[in-house]
Amino acid sequence: MNPLFQATEMLIFERQTSNRLCYFDNFILNAINAYKMKGSKANKNKRFIEELSPIWNEYEKGEYEKVFLEFMKLETELEAVTNDHSEHISHVIQEFLFGYNILTSCKWILKEYHYISGLADSRSDYCKLLFSWLSASLFHDIGYDIEEASTEEENRISKNKFWDFLSARVTNVDQIDFIDNSAQDLITNIIIPEVNNNTNNNYIFENFIKLFKRKDDKFPYWYKYDHGLISAIKYLSELQKLENNLGPRFLNWGPNINAALAMAFHNIRYKEIKMKISCSNPKTLILYLIIICDEIQEWERERIDFDIVNIKNPKKNIKTELDGIYFKDDKAFLIINHICELEDKEKEYTNELIKDVINQKKSYPIDVLFPDLPRSLDFNEDEFIQKTKFDISESLVYPRDIITSASFVDLSNIGFSIGEIRENPKFQAIIERNQKIFGTKCEKDILLPTKPHPIYRIYLEHRINNVPLLTVVFPF
User: Cα separation of 158 and 154, whole Å?
Assistant: First the structure.
């Protein structure tokens, strides 16, 4: 079974045996047990979501289960008509569990939201935080049906060429704009004020919306909207419906606003906007978390037909598995194994993965570490040569002969001698191969890790065909 589900079960059992009770835990266990039952991947996902319905009902949002199940149908249809669309249902479920384990493990968060021991009921500040995360993580990608609408249109047009002996299908030729007045009101009244409070800008709708839409090169009459913003609007529009029926207590509720903000900006590194996102700010904690979790969660996202539609794309033509994961109160460890079945594509894929890490390093204050190279990239060469011992707690590198996909051990007392490293024939090759990563600096001031020390770190080791390539460290 997926190690993330097992780790989640273990953490919940540990809390229950130590009498640290949380309102969410039993429902999460029920969802995992439902997922483990035999059936197709789609049915497993559906059962998982259905087991969460008591949580939605507790917070008077029972309709959101129906919204998500409709999202599952849209995703199935979208995957059928677009070749490059990755799987998203399992993605958001596993992203939810990944972030949930961080929120329930990080000692700083537990203290800050008053959940050190005892009971966290549904109305506690801590459970409101968990509900905000549940909403943001599960719904942040539902807007893809709109972002990919022009691709669907392109495919409909291409079908006309195939059925050239029949009358052509009618396609949309008029101006297409998916933002109507009601959506504009939600953006103007809910999202923009939160953004203006967090930036030095004074956005109004006209200049704000330009950050999220672009013309499509193939369809000059078509706007391509960012799926994050569309997801946030959909979430808020459902809240508007609830307010119309039950009264004004949903749109201005903090956990809902924080969730919507996280959805809208979860891929902020592609936007020309300067925001200060930190964990110490309650309004941006969920946003910070979803940015990191979304960057990390890439396992088990292959389409069923991935080896057919993506045969020319080395980044797509792989299987990605989570080989191991472990959560502690100040850090998490995980290993992702990228299985490249086409041998002639392995080097090409390796280069693509390194490019991805370089782009992450340009946007986020991450560190990158390498097997057989026990030092932080922040050390200069002189410091490296002068050291005779490298303690793991300092260098944060996992030697490949100690850590495996099946076990995580305390490496704090293990050191390396400089002679052993210099004798390694791969030493210079590692430096040469990853020289671009060494020289890459963070160019954006988006994520602000907690000072003087991060409250949490995530260590993500990438392996290609079971061989460690590099470890990316994400600070909180």
Answer: 6
Are residue 268 and residue 411 in the same domain, yes or no?
no
Please check whether residues 260 and 326 belong to one and the same domain: no
Provide the pLDDT for residue 303.
52
> Residues 19, 23, 25, 28: what is their CA dihedral angle, to the nearest 10 degrees?
170
> What is the pLDDT at residue 159?
73
For residue 393, being part of any structural domain is answered with: yes
Residue 158 CA to residue 151 CA, distance in Å, equals 11
Pairing of the two strands 331-339 and 319-327: antiparallel
Handedness of CA 270, 472, 453, 288 (dihedral sign): positive
Token couple for 320: 């990605």
Looking at the fold, whether 327 and 272 belong to one and the same domain comes out as: no
How many residues can be counted in the chain? Answer: 476
- By CB atoms closer than 10 A (0-12, 13-18, 19+), residue 112 is middle
- For residues 91 and 202, state if they share a domain: yes
Determine, yes or no, domain membership for 307. no
Tell me: do 234 and 187 sit in the same domain.
Answer: yes
Which of 265, 297, 329 is the endpoint of a domain? 297
Contact 269, 444 (CB under 8 A): yes
What is the token pair recorded at 153? 């249109």
Span 282-310, pLDDT tens digits: 999 999 999 999 999 988 876 544 444 44
How many whole angstroms separate alpha carbon 220 and alpha carbon 155? 16
Does 189 share its domain with 152?
Answer: yes
Q: Model-level pTM?
A: 0.84
- What is the full DSSP assignment across 84-106? TPPP-HHHHHHHHHHHHHHHTT-
328 plus 283 within the same structural domain? no
pLDDT digits (tens, 9 = 90+) for 88-134: 888 899 999 999 999 999 999 999 998 866 677 888 899 999 999 99
Q: Where are the beta strands (DSSP E) in 395-456?
A: 447-448
| Ramachandran class of 137: left when φ > 0, alpha when ψ lies in -120 to 50, beta otherwise | alpha
Domain span including residue 14? 3-297
What is the number of structural domains in the chain?
2
pLDDT tens, position by position, 333-343? 889 999 887 77
List the chain residues with pLDDT less than 70. Answer: 77-86, 116-118, 150, 164, 166-179, 220-221, 302-317, 371-435
In a domain, 303, yes or no: no
Q: What is the pLDDT of residue 418?
A: 46
Q: What does the pLDDT read at residue 80?
A: 64
